[in-house]
Write a structure and sequence with these properties.
mainly alpha, 2 domains
């Protein structure tokens, strides 16, 4: 919860940095402070996540939901919200699959996320061909 609050506080500055560091500095963004805050936030979340659920799950839930969200998002805010929703859907589907088929939860969540990526990618290809 604290990490979400910190991310909310630095979101606009982070978006400005993503567009252009120089422009953000001219607009009064404390570039170094925002960068350090973001890196520390991400490192802390990864360290906690690895201890709780493992490397495979943390890395896959950092990459796959963002890749899925990127296919249908036009703004950074849309991408962040959609990536979070994709992560939640993958976790729920993976946990359900783990319960239903009696398999380990971590790999089931990764497979669910990968399956979601494949499905969304196929729809994206079909949409662009029409």
């Amino acid at each position: 919860m604290i990490s979400l609050l910190v991310l909310t506080l630095i979101w606009r500055s982070l978006i400005a940095l993503t567009v252009s560091e120089e422009l953000a500095a001219v607009e009064g963004v404390a570039v170094t402070r925002v960068k350090v805050t973001y890196v520390l936030l991400l490192a802390g979340l990864i360290a906690i996540g690895i201890n709780v659920v493992g490397v495979l799950l943390v890395i896959s839930l950092l990459i796959i939901p963002a890749a899925v969200a990127r296919l249908y998002s036009s703004t950074p805010e849309q991408m962040a919200i959609r990536a979070a929703l994709c992560g939640i859907m993958s976790a729920v589907a993976g946990l359900y699959g783990s319960l239903f088929w009696d398999i380990p939860a971590g790999p089931a969540i990764v497979v669910a996320a990968a399956g979601l990526f494949v499905i969304v990618s196929m729809f994206s290809v079909f949409r662009s061909n029409s």
